[in-house]
Structures are given as structure tokens and as C-alpha cells.
Amino acid sequence: MDMITFAFRNVWRNKRRSLTTMAAIVCGYAAISLFGGYIADTYNSLQVQAVSGERLGHLTIFKEGMLKEGRLSPKKYLFNQEEMAKLKEIVSAYPGVKVVTPGLPISGIFNADNASSIFIGDGVVAKDLEILRGDLLAGYGGQIHQGMDTGIAIASDMGRMLAMEKGGLPTLITSTYSGQANAMDAEIVDVFETGNAGTNDKMILVPFEFAQHLMDTNGAQRFVVMLDNINNTSIAKDELQKKLVEAGLNVEIKTWRDLSSFYNQVAGLFNMIFTFIFCIVFIVIVMSIVNTMSMSVIERTREIGTLRSLGFIKLRIVYLFLLEGGILAVLAVGVGALISVVVATGIDLAKIEYTPPNSSAPVPLKIALNFPQMLITFALTLVLAAVAAVWPSLGASRKPIHTALNHI
């Protein structure tokens, strides 16, 4: 009889204990996989929200000093037309750049028919906005149209608060960079969700030239860069920084993660929660395996003595229990992985929606199973099962044969 078959028979000799241990591993593994999948989907959603919803792109290029002193002297840190043309030419020529587009933030008073409210907004190039929107859900991010010089998009809560819909004709009042009051009439062409409850009652999007006229400037505050592969962000940042400095442009480049504090805060919180749950679940799994294998060793001490008397060396005894622990882990993880896939698929098909903290609207609940993470969890479970099986069996195999045979 080969060792694997022998190990299988030993595992099923006490079915109740083995099934109880497997159930603990199955539940723990499925819980870790599903929660990990939920976190992975949340990270993906937050990434899309930061890159496309907040229009940060993968990279944002500012004049050097803009982020530190630009709030006090914004006009000083605007790109002029010559710098804009040179920067766009250099960045557009870089491999993997999908779009490089200027941006200009605006703020002021949004004057509706019978009410007014403060607003914050971005001046964006209409044709580039389609690329910036990326994978945003329908109704999110806002849209403006080429050829409509005064067409703007407003956030949904702002529209409800001021009773403004598509076709509305508000007036935007702001202070220019030189400190003069300025006002321009606009037409609402879209009402959208920002995805953030903190901005959904005040955010607007306007054509880039409209923003320039409103702020009385021909410059841009920043350039947003979208790449064809987000994994190249760090490399592109370093190489573009070098190219732009060599061209005489004193700039600083920030990645979307540098600028999205919300993403970093949520990711840090979820990482801590996942680590905490992971540790608790694995303690339960290890204790279950240790308990099962320890009881099995104690009950089979005389059997171990018999095997030793038949010529089994100590390492072969340990190997037998190692196989038993491994079989328990492999079977349980296989069932746990199957349950994870079934539950994740069921949740996706159920189209459940919920409203996360700080979100402006419900979002679909999805489980993006992280298969590399599941594989790592499987490997770790197998290692822990092996350690849990080896430890008690090593002690039993060291007993003298006559002592093991006389064990009661």
C-alpha cells in the first residue's frame, strides 16, 4: 500500500473529526477569499474614482511650487501658452500616453433663477474628457460637448438644491486672478454624480476656454496625463520629469495616488481590517488542525509503535502525518475555493447595491476574486497544516517502541 492511500484511509478513519476540521478550514478560507475579493473590487472602484471621477489621470503635472505656494499666488504658477505648447508636445510624444490635457480650477457663485450657491469646478477640454472618464459608470463624471462654448455640467445634488436641470441657464460669478469680479452665462448640458458626497452639491465642469475667459487668463494650472497602462505610472513619472526638466520646464509631477488622500486613507483602513481578520481566521484554522492531529497522534500511539516495529523509520512516521495534514488542507481549500467562486458569482448576478461611506449614490456590490491572493492563502494554509501535523507526530515518533506499544 502506498503512503498516499494509507494517509487517505487514516484521514477518513475518524470522519467526524476530519469533517469538523475541514469545515473550519473551508469557512476560514472562503471568508478570507470573499473579503479579499470585496477589498480588491473596492480598490478598483476607488482607483477609477480617483483617476477618472476626480480627473486626476495617472499623472498630474504642475509648475514647481504650485502645490506649496500656489494657493496664495495662483497666477504666478500658471503655465503660459508657450509652456503649454512645449509641455504638450513632449508628453504627447512619450510612448503609452493616451491623452495629455490642460486643466484650470474655478470657484465662485452659481446663480440660478431664484437661488444661488457656491461652486467649485474644473475647466476641461471636451474631447479629452471622454478619455478621462475611463471606466466610470454611466451617469458619473459628467460630460460636456464640443462646439458648445458655454455648455456646462453640474453635480446632481446641486441641481436638486437649486432646481436646475438640463437646459437651465445659470450665471457663474467669480473673482479673476487679478482680483476683478467676472460673470458669464452658461447652459446646463449634463447633470452627473461625482461619486463623492462632499462635492456632489457644488461641483461643475465647464469647457477649458470658458474657464480661461471666466478667470481672465490664457494659461493652465495643470496638465493631466492618461496612460494606456496604469502599471507604468511610476516609470512614466520619472522619465517625463527628466525630459521636461531637460527642456527647461520646471515642473513637479504627481501620481494619482499622491493626490488622492481618500484612496490612501481607505486603503490603509481596509488593509488593517483584512490583516486583523486574516490573523484571527488563521489562528482558528491552525488550532483546528493542531487539535485534530494531536488527538489522532495520541489515539494512534500504539499504531505508531507497531509501524516502528515493522521497520518504519521516524521520518517516515512524520511523513505519514504530514501527508494526512496536507490532504485535509488540500481538500478543504478546494471546497473553500469552489464556495468562494459560487458565492461571488451569485452576488454579482444578484446586482446588489449599497451606498459606501462618503459616496454620493449607490454602487453595485461585487466580489473581484483575487486568484493570486487565493493561491498565496492556499500555500500558507498548506504550510500551517504541515507544521501542525509534524509537531505532534515528531514527538510521538521519538518514543521508544516498547513505550509506544504499551500506551493506553
Topology:
Layout: H1 3-11, H2 15-53, E1 59-63, H3 66-69, H4 81-92, E2 97-111, E3 116-124, H5 126-132, E4 151-155, H6 156-162, E5 171-175, E6 181-185, E7 187-192, E8 203-207, H7 208-215, E9 222-227, H8 233-246, E10 251-255, H9 256-259, H10 261-299, H11 301-309, H12 314-350, E11 353-354, E12 363-364, H13 371-397, H14 401-405
Parallel strand pairs: 3-8, 4-7
Antiparallel strand pairs: 1-9, 1-10, 2-3, 2-5, 2-9, 4-8, 5-6, 11-12
Helix pairs in contact: 1-12, 2-10, 2-12, 2-13, 10-13, 12-13
Describe this structure in words.
This protein has helices spanning 3-11, 15-53, 66-69, 81-92, 126-132, 156-162, 208-215, 233-246, 256-259, 261-299, 301-309, 314-350, 371-397, 401-405; strands at 59-63, 97-111, 116-124, 151-155, 171-175, 181-185, 187-192, 203-207, 222-227, 251-255, 353-354, 363-364. With 408 residues, the protein is of the alpha+beta class. The longest helix is centred in the N-terminal third of the chain and has 39 residues, at 15-53. The mean pLDDT is 86.
* Overall spatial form: elongated
- In quaternary terms, these chains amount to single chain
Helicity level: 40-55%
Q: What is the overall number of helices?
A: 14
Number of separate domains: 2
Secondary-structure element pattern, one letter each: HHEHHEEHEHEEEEHEHEHHHHEEHH
Give the DSSP E fraction (strand runs of 2 or more residues). 15-25%
Contiguous runs where pLDDT drops below 50 for at least 5 residues: none
Determine the N-to-C terminus distance.
27 Å
Strand tally is 12
**Secondary-structure content class:** alpha+beta
Largest sheet geometry: 10 strands, mixed
Computed CA radius of gyration, to the nearest angstrom:
31 Å
Question: How confident overall, as mean pLDDT?
Answer: 86
